[in-house]
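Bench log. Compound arrived from synthesis this morning; before running ITC I wanted a structural hypothesis for how MRU sits in the protein. Inputs:
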Amino acid sequence: MPQELRAVEWTGSGLALIDQTLLPHRTETVVVRDVDTLVGAIQRLVVRGAPAIGAAGAYGVAIALLQGEREDWKQGRLREAVGRIRQARPTAVNLMVCVDRVAARLPEGLDAVLEEAAAVQREDVEGNRAMGAFGADWLLEKVSPGRPLRILTHCNTGALATAGWGTALGVIRELHARGRLEVVYADETRPLLQGSRLTAWELVQEGIPHYVQADGAAAGTILRGEVDAAIVGADRIAANGDTANKVGTVGVALACADAGIPFLVAAPTTTVDLATKTGDDIHIELRDEAEVLEWAGVRTAPASSRGHNPAFDVTPGRLVTGLVTERGVLEVSAGELPGDRLQ
Ligand code: MRU
């Protein structure tokens, strides 16, 4: 994939988003200029992935400001609009953190708001690059089978899910760039297929060898010894290391623990939410049951079946071998995360 791929890009008057619901068959960009459309785009996963929705929310503050000027909003209406962007999805803390950071500059006007949003975007890409190097260094030091590594990942954590480059997929890209990657097992990631549609698409662009496998295949692939390490992203990490990520992640972590291979989480320090004590306190988004009862818009389950569709699950911190951040790798399998090293 060209490194300059940007899931989120400010055009000067609006926010250009690659419509991730259409990939890999169509690459289309939508330009968002109002708050309702932005909130809808975040909720429909036109833009998705914790850091990418953080960046979209950051620029969303500028969209709200411009819409307010066009439509002559009062202060209260602007605050309410910014609040709606902030709450568009509940699990990823990045959205709230980024919106709050940029909204703090609202009194200084549009230029300041745009400057802050651009800083959010720039810092994310820089952080991802650093994370990629730290994660690859750690894996090559700790896992040394004497041949290139076989890595399993879940969901999509690449350039599409961030402001650029990627978190867990950034580590994978770095291993590939160093010639130390044999193959990636990309879990398809039911029900919305971020793995088979988006991760596989990014891996194809990068020329990275990979298999797409059903989520249900992951544990067996790991227990058969076909994987050297798993690396995933995160939407929110509690103070005790409990990690919310795409539903299906905890099964991967359990299999890694049983197989005795590393299970790494790669995420910027802004994903760590020290105010959230444990995973029990993380709000897990429940999505429309139609997403699990249908396939490609066609009903597959019996008409009377109900669907249970949590978008995320929580992996207990004790199952996380290491947390790869832009500051380095923290090996924390038990207890509190070291807050002073994270904020
Ligand atoms: O529902 P999604 O596609 O937004 O879920 C995305 C994930 O769970 C990612 O793993 C996480 O946001 C990290 S993206 C770098």
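What the model suggests: The first helix runs from residue 35 to 43. Residues 8-123 form a domain with the Four Helix Bundle (Hemerythrin (Met), subunit A) fold (CATH 1.20.120.420).
ITC booked for Thursday regardless.
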